Description:
Blueprint: E1 2-6, H1 9-26, E2 31-34, H2 38-52, E3 62-65, E4 67-69, H3 80-87, E5 96-98, H4 107-120, E6 126-129, E7 151-154, H5 157-163, E8 176-179, H6 182-186, E9 190-195, H7 201-209, E10 227-232, H8 233-236
Parallel strand pairs: 1-10, 2-3, 2-6, 3-5, 6-9, 9-10
Antiparallel strand pairs: 4-8, 7-8
Fructose -6-phosphate is lined by residues 35-39, 66-67, 130-132, 136-139.
Organism: Neogemmobacter tilapiae
GO molecular function: glucosamine-6-phosphate deaminase activity; identical protein binding
Pathway: Amino-sugar metabolism; N-acetylneuraminate degradation; D-fructose 6-phosphate from N-acetylneuraminate: step 5/5
Amino acid sequence: VKILIHPDAERAADCVAELIAARLRTEPATNLGLATGGTMEAVYARLIAAYRGGQVSFAGATSFNLDEYVGLPPDHPCSYWRYMREHLFDHVDLTDTHLPHGDAADAEVEAARYEAAIVAAGDIGLQLLGLGANGHIGFNEPTSSLSSLTRIKTLTRSTREANARYFERFEDVPRHAITMGIGTIMRADEVVLLAYGAGKVDAVAAMIEGPVSAACPASVLQMHRKVTVVIDEAAAKGLK
Ligand code: F6R
């Protein structure tokens, strides 16, 4: 695992945007695995700026997002479809985009369809990940099987609380999500994980220096061939 510690979140986001842009320049037909959440907003803002400046194009790329809430249709203001349109898709030349459909009649069938679509596309080339304060990647909460495929996961209370800021009321935060599995993520050719801020300090330490354990799903990345972890000094404080 390559660990890059930057002085602040701004510089960490610069670094991740550049890693993505560099991959697209050398391999325009990359399958990008994308994440949502507060962490990624700065990354997408930089990629939009780079696109407008003619420094990157997504025209040859395909994207698959990690996850979506069960029950939310694509046009719901809190859906990850909406997040992606607002923060990236509406502003760049990326057209071949995929997310799980949270409003599918049968979420289990939809999860299996999504996994098969990723396999059919040849798996993910560069997978972008955030990190939950509890060590989750995607919505693979602690105790998730380390070889899981795309499926429905029940969100922990702490994850629902962390994401409640996007909803009007805590009760509105969905209880389930469709998420790529840990096994799905581990098939990616390359993984770039971004985390910053004091809230991630314990999860960062457990991911990098803890045992490989389902108690901290991100720790499985220790077993991946090509991982770059990009953090700021605040998130790095728990490292030995
Ligand atoms: C988002 C996702 C999650 C987030 C994580 C961190 O698609 O899969 O794993 O990356 O919860 O979220 P933020 O960035 O809001 O702290």
